Amino acid sequence: MAGNRSNEEATSGLARQAREPSIHQLRLFLALADELHFGRVAARLFISQSALSRQLRALETRLGVKLFERNSRAVVLTTAGEALLPEAHAVTAAMSGVLQRARLHARMVTGHLVVGQCGADAALPYARTTLAGLRRRHPGISVEVRSLNFAGQISALNRGEVDVAFVRPPVPPGIQTLDLATEPRVACLPADDPLATEKQLTLAQLADRAVADAPPEVSRNWWDYWTVNPRPDGTPVRYGPTVTDIEALLATIALGEAMMFVPASTKKLFPRAGVAYIEVVDLPLCGAALAWTPENRTRPDIAAIRECARRGIVNGRE
Question: In this protein, which residues make up the domain named HTH lysR-type (predicted)?
Fold first, then answer.
């Protein structure tokens, strides 16, 4: 008995489902209600008039009401047809919303992105714009910002400890980058250095100052760039104590043991007692970039942050 009842309920459910109008039929109904002309609606929707008529008759059968009065001269909505218009509009609009939301989620990138920074570069405008754009356009990606030392900005990428990094070029071969910004470099001197009271300096004035050194795992090409070694006249730099990160560098400078050339933004990001930042008139600009390894280039989350970085560059130039 119970089995028979279940079969009857299933059959009844299928019957009810079969009588439900399709979204396609409702859209045809709305189109004809708007035009009240079979020929124009059929041409607009690229179907034959006979196919349009069949679909609308099927819709009337499923709904159990007559929607249109037809004769050789005119098509007129019935009272039932008029009454069903608001609901038909609501149903088709709701389905359009469902499809749009589904397409949005199908395109949505998800994942966890570890972003490296050397110093506090993630706080600079180009990085904030990039990360804000990523959060807005791809809310399914969570972001973790990880601070790196001088050696780590590249080695962490190569080891997969970070997925992308805000770096200070030059970068070694095998690392891909997107240039984000340029800015001046300044001299970072001990505050009690006689030159620390000057408004501007030249490289020649700093020729006899010891410059902080980096540990062996840091690329010498990168460190030579940042220490301007050799100087324009060919003189090699005299190195002082070794430092591994920005905080150690600033502490060493504050103790009067060395100096360094740093991006001008360091003055805002790292104000410190005991150090002075002075403009150097003949020091070339430095750059900032987003970096990743070639094997990760096509990863959806990395492609997403690259695209957000590009949008930030374009918007910043407009």
Answer: 21-78
